[in-house]
Amino acid sequence: MSRSRTTVVDIAHAAGVSKSTVSLVLQGSPLVNEKTREKVNSVIADLGYIYNRGAANLRQARSKIVGIVVNDLTNSFFAELAVGMDMVVQSAGYVQFLAHSGESVDRQREVIASMRENGIAGLILSPARGTEAADLKPLIDSGIPVVVVVRNLPGAKVSTLLSDNYTGAKAAVRHLVSLGHRRIGFMGGFIDTAVFAERLRGYRDALQEAGIAADDALIIHSAPSRAGGVAAVERMMLHPDRATAALCLNDAVAFGVCDGLRSVGIDPGKGFGVIGFDDVIEAKTAVPALTTVSVDPQGMGQRAAQLLLKQINAGGNEQESLVTSVRLVVRQSCGAPVRNNYLEEMA
Amino acid sequence: MSRSRTTVVDIAHAAGVSKSTVSLVLQGSPLVNEKTREKVNSVIADLGYIYNRGAANLRQARSKIVGIVVNDLTNSFFAELAVGMDMVVQSAGYVQFLAHSGESVDRQREVIASMRENGIAGLILSPARGTEAADLKPLIDSGIPVVVVVRNLPGAKVSTLLSDNYTGAKAAVRHLVSLGHRRIGFMGGFIDTAVFAERLRGYRDALQEAGIAADDALIIHSAPSRAGGVAAVERMMLHPDRATAALCLNDAVAFGVCDGLRSVGIDPGKGFGVIGFDDVIEAKTAVPALTTVSVDPQGMGQRAAQLLLKQINAGGNEQESLVTSVRLVVRQSCGAPVRNNYLEEMA
DNA sequence: AGATATAATTGGAACGTTCCAAATATGTCA
DNA sequence: TGACATATTTGGAACGTTCCAATTATATCT
C-alpha cells in the first residue's frame, strides 16, 4: 500500500546534498555545516524518515540491541529485575529482546540462538534451572559479552552479579534467634539451585553459631512460589515438634507461608515468625508487612545492565564478578518490635 | 579478537557450491538436491555458522521481530499477559522486543520509535495512561500492524483485544447482591482509564438492576495496585455507613483491600466481601482464595499474539476487534458458599 | 595573488543476505 | 541420438546504511 520506505538517498536528493552528508547528520557528526544540518533535519522531519538501524548494523557489525532472558517473568522479583534493566538499557539508547524461559533449558537455548541470529550486542541471563556453563560456551567464544545474574553458573567465563545470599540468610536467622526462637525452619526452594544452597548455608551457619542443633525436618522443600509456600506450611503442620519461625527462600514463598498459616488459624507475625528474601514491592504494603532480606531487585537489574553495557563498550572480555550486599528489613511478619538501627526509611 | 564472522560465502566455498545454493538450503527450499543439502548442512555445523537475520531483513524488507510494549510489567496481570505473548511469538519463530512504559507516554513514544527503527514487523501495545489514538497514527500509516490490548483506544485504526469488563463487573456485583449485600463499594483505579469506566458501568448497572440506589461515596479511587487497595480501605473506614462488600478494579487492589481489612481487624471473606478482577495466578492460592472475574491473562496474551501474527501474515490492514469473555470464579474472599455452577475446575 | 591550512562535502565500496534470470545437468521420449 | 522437459545450480544486483579516501569550498597568512 504505502510506497517504498524513504531512505537516506531520498533525503539527500530532497535536501540537495549527498547521502554521505545525510549520514553524517544522522550521526551527529561535528564535521557538517550548521546550515546544511538544519536543512537536512527539516527534510528528515518533512518526509517522515525512519532510520534503518538494521542496515547500519550490517555495515558496522555491531548493534544497539541487548538480549535479556529471565527464568520466570511471572515472579515479581524477576519482573522487577527486568524493569530495572529496561530502564538503563533504554536510556542508553538500546532496545532489548526480553524473553521468558519458564525454567526450560531448551526454550532458553532456542531463544538465545534466535537472539544471536538477530545480532545482539550482549546478553543478560538469569539462567533456567539446570543450565550448565557449557551451554554458554559458543556464545562467549564468539566474543559477545554475557552477564549472568541471580543464579551462579560455576565454571562459565562470564561476568556475574549475585546477591549476598549467605550473609543475608545468616542475618535473618540471627534476628530470629535474637527474638528467642529456637526451632527455626527453612521453607521453599529446590535443592538444585545455587541460590537455595547459599541461603541454606547461611541459615545453617547462623544456627550453629547460636548453638542450636540442626534438624533437617525443619527444612521443607517446595516450589519457590506462593503456592509452594502454602504447601510447605501444610507439610510443616504434620510435624509434631514444628518450627516457631522460618526463613523462606524468597518473598513469594513467604507470602504463601503467611497464607498457609492463616488458613490453619495461625496469625503470621504473632504466632509464627516469617522472614522472606528479596524485598519485592508488595513486601512493604502487605499485612503483616513482610520482614525480609532486601535485595533491591530493580537496583540489581540496573547494575546488571550497567555492567553489560560497560562490557560492550570496553570490547575486551575480562569478566567481573560482583556480589551486591543485602540488608535485613525488619517489618511486622517476624513479630519483632522494630528496632532503630533497622528502621526503614519512608518511601 | 575472533576473526570475522563466517558467512554464506565461507560456507559456499567450503562446501564447493555457490552462495545462492547455500541460501536455498538455509531457506529449506525444495529445489536443492538432497545430497548437496546434506553437504551444506554439515559444513554449516562444522564452521559454527550463525545466520545473520539482519542482513536477510534488509534484503527482504520484512523481519521476524515483533514489539511488545506493556504499561506495567511489575503488575502480575501484565507479566502473565507478556508471558502468554512470549509463548506464541517464540514458537512462531519470532523474537520480541519487550519493553515497559511505566505508564509514561513519553517513554512509550521513545520505545516505539526505537522499535520501529529496529524494524519490527508488528506491535502489541498495552497503552500507558493518557495514550491517544493520534500517537499511533504514523506507525499505523506506515503499514505496520498494531494490536492494542487490555485498554481501549477509541478512534485508533487498530485491532483490539479487550476483556468483557462490563459483563464481568456486572456478574460480580450481581453475585454480591445475591449474597444479600446492599452496600457494595467499588474500589481502586483512576477515572481516566477505559478499563475503569467499563467496570464501573457494569457495577452501576448491576446495582440499578437490583434496585439499589447508587452512592458515590462508595466509589473509592486509588492507584490500581496492592498499595492502592490498602489506602482505599483506610479511606473507606472513615465513612460512617461503610460498604459491606466491594468489587475491586483488579486483583492487585483486591489483595491490598484484604490486607487493609486485616489491619483494621476485619476478616476478609467473613466480615467483608471482596471480589477482584483478572484472576492472576496468586488468586487461587491466596488465603482467603480470591473470588474474582477471570480474564485469563496468559490466554489473552496468546490470543493477542496470534491476532498480530495473523495480521502480519495477511499483509492487509483490516482491523479486527475482539472482546474475550470472562467468568466469575467464586472462591472464599466474598464469603459465598461455593455454588456448583461456578465450581472451579482443578488445575 | 598565491600558497597553505582548514572546513565541508562526496562518490563508491562494503556489510551478508535474497532474488532474479539465466545457465547447466539430468532424464525421457520417439 | 537429438529434442525436449525437468531438476539443480549459479552469478550478479539489490536492500540502506557507514566508512574511506579523495575532492571541493572557504578561510588565513605572507
From TrEMBL, chains A, B:
<keyword id="KW-0238">DNA-binding</keyword>
<dbReference type="InterPro" id="IPR000843">
    <property type="entry name" value="HTH_LacI"/>
</dbReference>
<keyword id="KW-0678">Repressor</keyword>
<dbReference type="InterPro" id="IPR046335">
    <property type="entry name" value="LacI/GalR-like_sensor"/>
</dbReference>
<feature type="domain" description="HTH lacI-type">
    <location>
        <begin position="6"/>
        <end position="60"/>
    </location>
</feature>
<dbReference type="GO" id="GO:0003700">
    <property type="term" value="F:DNA-binding transcription factor activity"/>
</dbReference>
<keyword id="KW-0804">Transcription</keyword>
<dbReference type="Pfam" id="PF00356">
    <property type="entry name" value="LacI"/>
</dbReference>
<dbReference type="InterPro" id="IPR010982">
    <property type="entry name" value="Lambda_DNA-bd_dom_sf"/>
</dbReference>
<dbReference type="Pfam" id="PF13377">
    <property type="entry name" value="Peripla_BP_3"/>
</dbReference>
<dbReference type="GO" id="GO:0000976">
    <property type="term" value="F:transcription cis-regulatory region binding"/>
</dbReference>
<protein>
    <submittedName>
        <fullName>LacI family transcriptional regulator</fullName>
    </submittedName>
</protein>
<keyword id="KW-0805">Transcription regulation</keyword>
<dbReference type="InterPro" id="IPR028082">
    <property type="entry name" value="Peripla_BP_I"/>
</dbReference>
